[in-house]
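Attaching the record inline, Q. Sequence:
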Amino acid sequence: MGCCDRRCGLIAGAAFGAVVAILGGVLIPLGNSIIKGTVEKEVVIEPGTTAYDNWVATGALVYRQFWFLDVQNAQEVLQTGATPVVVEKGPYTYKTRYFAKENITFNPNQTASFLLPMGAIFEPSMSVGPEEDKVTSLNLAVAAAYSLVPKVLHGVLENLIKTTNSSLFQYRTVNELLWGYTDPILKGKLGLFVPYNGTYDGVFNVYTGKDDISKVGIIDRWRGERSLRFWDDKYCDMINGTDASSFSPFVDKKKPLYFFSSDICRSVSASFVDSIDLKGIEVYRFTLQENTMASPTVNPDNQCFCRDPKTTNNCSLAGVLDISSCQQGRPIYISLPHFLYGSPSLQNAVKGLSPSKEHHDTFLDVEPTTGFTLRFAKRIQVNMMYGPSDVITVLKKVKDYTIFPLVWMNETASLDDETAAMIKEELLSRIEMFDIIWKALLGSGVAIFLLCSISYCMVRSNDNRSKFV
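Structure, as predicted:
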């Protein structure tokens, strides 16, 4: 009777272990389904969701840091045609995106429209000096006029330059160069980011994700249009992806992320490079693909971004983007800082540049479950072009067209400790809890089943041997 009880107990134990293991196995899809449902509900852009409050007004502080390329040999450039030598001066830091989105409207087609107010507040504690620091930089009016005024009118431009005592370079404060000054040639306000304070970006229309979570945050329209009007080409005028603040949940690191940036007037993509830890949260780091600014000879998709074969060596120049068509005609060229990934000729035309992937590349750190961008660094350099002239005195010694770096910007933000704790508590802890529970049930169930099964076999073997003794 005792042997029977022992065998029955072990059989029951094995059955119990099997049930526990099966329960653990069942929890895997069940837990994943619960997590998927919760995430998809919370990342929809509508009042009451986790995503909504951060979408309306970003919780993280966003800063724009500026480094100027200070010209060291302005007189030698003018008098002998020497190669310009620059020294990086910065950062000069401003807090931006501190306003909440305005005019938020939810539309019948499951999109939300809004305006994004723009403003900048100087942060002395994060800067190398005050806004009154002075920099020797390219004269914006002279460079702009050189590009825009036909050669037959260069005589008129020469008279303007002389009568206003202007030159190819100017000595101005950081504040003036960024936010504007009264230019003697143009008799109006001129600056790298004029106008900025008190203006708006948009109107944006983005999908809320309510009817299709894979479309959450994707831009439907910008300024009322589904495509751009800058490049005269269907492909280059496409508005792809989100604004990079978030992406659809359950990010696949094998697929690139697409986003549109109004700063560079085009859509770009970023590819996965690494998984890293950010305040205890695993994030996927995505960076711009190296061929994003490649010449059309390397990346044929960029052919429609080449607007002036004369200044781009018949569209063989890599690393710069002429965005004058979306800058009210202002001849602005955008690149990565220090012409990272650019043609060697760009770096050789100006001494003092030292491109570095670590310091000058753009990246996004995206939490893969929610698709939220938890940290980013958007790095852009603003350049203008000048070239030789037989008429304009300050350009007579210039030997060739030069795309000259004025300033580069690092717009950056990272989640704070409070937001990190919220994400870990409200989302990641639940995922970890389900992970621990199903692993514990599956592991203990299998262990109990195996232990009872082995013990049963041993007991039965011993009982069989005892019968023959």
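The chain has a mean pLDDT of 88. Residues 60-98+120-197+227-415 form one domain.

More tomorrow.
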